[in-house]
Each structure stands twice: as C-alpha cells, then as structure tokens.
Amino acid sequence: MFNRTFIQLPSLTLAVLAVGTVATASPLPGPIPTVRRVVPGPNLIATPTGSSFSGVKLPSITGAAISGTSHVISIAGNGMSLTNIAISLPQQMENFSGITIQDQSGATVPAQIQRQDDLVTINFDAPVPAGSSLKVALNNVRMLTKGGERLPYSVSVMQTGAKGEISIGTALISVPTRD
Q1: Residue 47: CB partners within 8 Å, gap ≥ 6?
Q2: Global pTM value
Q3: pLDDT tens readout for residues 33-52
Q4: Domain finish residue from 14, 35, 50
Q5: Residue 93 and residue 141 in contact, taking contact as beta carbons nearer than 8 Å
Q6: Which of 19, 80, 117, 166 is the most buried (most CB within 10 A)?
Q7: CA 45, CA 71: separation in Å to the nearest integer?
C-alpha cells in the first residue's frame, strides 16, 4: 500500500506517492476535477521530477542497511527542518529493543519514541535543523524470516510548521540468508 499526500491548489491537485520521487501533476484543458481521491485519468498527467518541487529540496532516504543486529535507515533533511519521523515496520519484524538516532556528527539526537502496532513515531525534543542528516537505527531486531528478502520500511517526516506528514519513500533492507 502506498502512503499518499494530497496538496490542493486552486486549479491543480498534486498526489505524492511513496515511491522515492515527486509526481508533478499538470492540468489539461477542461473542467477541474473535484474528487478527493486522485486517480489517473484524462484530465491529469503525472511526471516524475526528482526530489524537489518549485526549488524546495525535500527530505529523502539516502541509505538502508543492516549493521550487526540493527536495521539502519539514513535520512537527509535537505532544505527542511524536521519535527518528527514516522516509520512503518515490515510485517516480518517480530520485535526490536530500541531506537538510536544520530546526526551527521555522530551525536545522539534526543527524541520521544512511540510504537503503536507496526508504526513507530519519533518526535524530536527540538526541531532537527534544515540540511541535517540522520541515521535511525532499530536495535536488536528479531525477524520472522530466514533471510533472502528485502524488508520495506515506509518513511514519512513532518516539517516544522507543517500540518501533515510528507512521505519520503520506502527504505528496503536486504536480509541475508541464514544457515
């Protein structure tokens, strides 16, 4: 399932899907659709344009890996100051013992962490400055897999002053086969 973010402008509806790129929608001549759910149709053409929109650099996932028993997701804040990160856990994850967040200097970033079912929300004690890079490590991960799979972690962020989350994509962590 894709995370969706909808932006409504007077003559344009933009749908951003969690696929690692931004889809820019351009209206064609004719009536403006008044639907709440955007479905590709004759009045809407989506064109991928990378990770910026009108010159604004959006946060992005820059890496995903296993380090020992930890699953590590790297995130670049780019041009946005961030107040939280939400991570949807893959169904193969049984449990983990905690989360460590570090900035580009290796310093621990203080945050309040909440888990509800398969969603982890990280609320930073103070906004993470624009341009910062973060490493989010889920420690001592236990999985319901023998390996050989790619585990999807859907990642969303919230910008300082924003009213909704921005889906920045899916981090895929390749699990080696266990003997």
Answers
A1: 23, 24, 26
A2: 0.70
A3: 444 433 444 443 443 334 44
A4: 50
A5: yes
A6: 80
A7: 37
The structure tokens listed for 70 are 């930890």
For residues 127 and 80, what is the distance between their CA atoms, to the nearest angstrom?
10
Distances (CA, A) of 74 to 150, 156, 172: 16, 13, 11
Q: For the chain, how long is the longest CA-to-CA vector? A: 60
Q: Minimal CA–CA distance to 150: which of 54, 66, 81, 41?
A: 66
CA distances (Å), 1 to each of 19, 36, 42, 56, 79, in order? Answer: 11, 18, 24, 27, 27
Overall domain count for the chain: 2
Residue whose entry in the numeric block shows the structure tokens 């945050």: 111
Q: Which H or E run includes 9?
A: strand 4-9
Q: What is the CATH number of the domain that holds 99?
A: 2.60.40.2430
